[in-house]
Amino acid sequence: MKKKIVSILLCVTMVAAMAVGCGSKDGGSDSKSESGDSKDKKYKVGITIQSLSNAYWAGVMGKLEEQLKDKGWDYTLIDCEDNSATQVSQIENFITSGCDLIMVHPSDAKAVENICKEALDADIKVMCWDDPMENTTANWVLDNTELGKEIGKTAAEFINDKFTADDKAQVTVIGYPSTKVLKERADGIKEGLKENCKDNYEVIAEVDGLEAPEAQSNVESVLSAHPDANVFVGVGAGAMIGSNEALLQKYGKGKIPENVGVITTDVTEQQLNSLKAGNEAVRSIVGFEGSNEDTAKACMKMYERILSGEKFEGDDHNVYRTIKPITTDNIDEILKGM
Length: 338
Description:
Rossmann fold
């Protein structure tokens, strides 16, 4: 799959060419018109996300590209490598190139508020994925505290089945507090554990782990300092993939003790395969719409709603995504859409 990658430093000639290309879409008609059916029009979309190194984002964005290509829309998909200054520059380039819609998954939501306002002032629709921003047309968000609580509740079910007040679970929380929504998610995990466990756990460590390599390295350090650490809860796919790998290195596939487990969110093929295998440390996943394809389709539906001119005002400014558990009952169907 060919990705369109845009350099942060675009030359004037390229910008002009992009603007002309946008204007030539749909036979020279005004692509920003709010009348008519957005499903039948061709649009130009700029997408900037926090990181494509994250397995979840790489998977979902791959499926979203398929949706955009099927529609025949012009698009640019890039990541900012978790750098807010880079992301501001990317959005500036999207504005200059005449996008109809900009989607931002912020590295730092506050840092991109002003540039997103400039996009709105230029009559460009702006959608934020993950943060309840102010200067957007609509935000497509999770209640990250509630998501965290659901992860904590799911982990508590495992803990309550395996541990007692006399034999407490040794819990490691894998987060990424420098990103606001992930801090909220990690705090929610701890709340969920507190509300649902039966005085049978203690948090022995809190480490960073947005990407799998970082999570694996930090979990290996935890296991070195706390050999009896046995339950690992986290904010995303990287936390699960990395900690699962660290535990496989420690114990070996098929030899993971029954009271050792990893519970996080996000939905990647690697996570699902580990859960289905049954001989690794992955015990449960709290998912979203379903598969990568399901999430991409839901995102595309948001694009169409925004571009059709639908108003997202007041309490409707934040559109909340669904949360649902991944179980043995639905895992095969979800795997089909990965």
